[in-house]
């Protein structure tokens, strides 16, 4: 970008240069340039020191430094020697460009551009300001490039933590859809119970989490992305498989069951549902995954409580039988969660949007 002054016929508005705050000598002499520099430094706070005090100026930069758009326009005027051509380059009308230059001149208190029918020419003060503006704009471009690089690094990976049922039965479909939208994003998935998901999010080890519990864990925000129900199931040979009447809550609570471990969303919902009925009896088996619980139930080890999402195939093939239960609510919400105050961005935001576009349950 050149800061050289020049004129080019363009049919500019032909108004005389100058501002409400007076004008600056327009000679190419050292005295003229020194006067222009002194005027601009005075307008901008004396080069960072209070006049005659030697103390740092405390006024906010936003009150005395033009915005980047105005500085980019001034650089375009310097390149083209024409306000109209500069306006076209930055994508605004010539009257808007003229108004922006006049506003910048009023803000700085110096004349920047001499306008005439032959074109627009920078004043000595305008040439100095253009030199400074170039450094500011180049620094802003470097800043923008750096931020884009950070966004690119952030968007190149996505760390997801999910409770077992969501990880096994819902996330695969959501991640396939995300892959179609973001083929260059590498996704890692950590599966565990809902308590472990919350721990990973709070430790900064995951960008987005999915849990199955009764409520959003402490320290997290969240939104419901799907609904689910728990079902009591047994192998076909178990006595409960032949029952005609539903099991009541007290009988369910008293029975040794194959259960997920404490901290899992399934266990939280079941514990809460049966708390008023004496609480759960000692588990027959306590296992750390939905797949393990399901396999134990299919083998005939005993009745189990599982998500309906996890047993569709086993129920249709009659390897498991659903046992009706009366008087207890076993429905639950499935949630996406993230640390409080840190709304998902980039790939995490896109994955969250896909869960709403492709609801389950």
From TrEMBL:
Family matches, as InterPro entries: LysR_HTH_N (IPR000847), LysR_subst-bd (IPR005119), WH-like_DNA-bd_sf (IPR036388), WH_DNA-bd_sf (IPR036390)
Keyword flag Protease: no
Domain of life (superkingdom): Bacteria
SUPFAM superfamilies: Periplasmic binding protein-like II (SSF53850), Winged helix' DNA-binding domain (SSF46785)
Sequence ranges of Gly residues compositional bias: 1-21
Keywords attached to this entry: DNA-binding, Transcription, Transcription regulation
GO molecular function, one term: transcription cis-regulatory region binding
Pfam families associated with the record: HTH_1, LysR_substrate
Domain HTH lysR-type: 66-123
Region of interest (Disordered), residue spans: 1-34, 339-361
Family label: Belongs to the LysR transcriptional regulatory family.
Name by which UniProt lists this protein: Transcriptional regulator
Organism: Streptomyces termitum
């Amino acid at each position: 970008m050149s800061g050289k002054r020049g004129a080019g016929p363009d049919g500019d508005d032909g108004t005389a240069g100058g501002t409400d705050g007076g004008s600056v000598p327009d000679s190419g002499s050292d005295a003229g340039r020194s006067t222009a520099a002194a005027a601009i430094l005075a307008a901008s706070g004396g080069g960072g020191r209070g006049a005659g005090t030697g103390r740092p100026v405390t006024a906010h930069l936003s009150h005395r430094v033009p915005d980047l758009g105005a500085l980019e326009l001034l650089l375009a005027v310097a390149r083209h020697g024409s306000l109209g051509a500069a306006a076209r380059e930055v994508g605004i009308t010539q009257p808007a460009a003229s108004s922006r230059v006049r506003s910048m001149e009023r803000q700085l208190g110096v004349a920047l551009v001499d306008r005439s029918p032959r074109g627009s020419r920078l004043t000595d003060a305008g040439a100095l300001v253009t030199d400074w503006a170039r450094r500011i704009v180049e620094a802003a471009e470097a800043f923008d490039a750096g931020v884009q690089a950070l966004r690119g690094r952030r968007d190149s990976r996505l760390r997801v933590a999910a409770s077992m049922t969501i990880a096994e039965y819902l996330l695969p479909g959501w991640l396939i859809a995300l892959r179609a939208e973001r083929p260059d994003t590498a996704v890692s998935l950590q599966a565990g119970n809902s308590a472990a998901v919350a721990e990973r999010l709070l430790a900064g080890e995951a960008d987005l989490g999915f849990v199955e519990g009764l409520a959003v864990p402490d320290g997290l925000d969240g939104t419901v992305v799907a609904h689910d129900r728990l079902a009591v199931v047994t192998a076909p040979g178990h006595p409960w498989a032949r029952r005609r009447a539903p099991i009541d809550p007290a009988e369910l609570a008293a029975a040794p069951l194959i259960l997920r471990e404490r901290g899992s969303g399934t266990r939280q919902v079941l514990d809460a549902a049966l708390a008023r009925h004496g609480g759960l009896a000692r588990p027959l088996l306590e296992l750390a995954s939905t797949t393990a619980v399901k396999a134990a139930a299919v083998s005939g080890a005993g009745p189990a409580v599982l998500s309906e999402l996890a047993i569709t195939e086993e129920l249709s093939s009659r390897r498991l039988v659903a046992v009706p239960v009366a008087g207890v609510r076993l429905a639950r919400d499935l949630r996406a969660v993230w640390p409080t105050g840190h709304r998902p961005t980039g790939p995490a935001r896109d994955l969250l949007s896909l869960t709403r576009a492709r609801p389950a349950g």
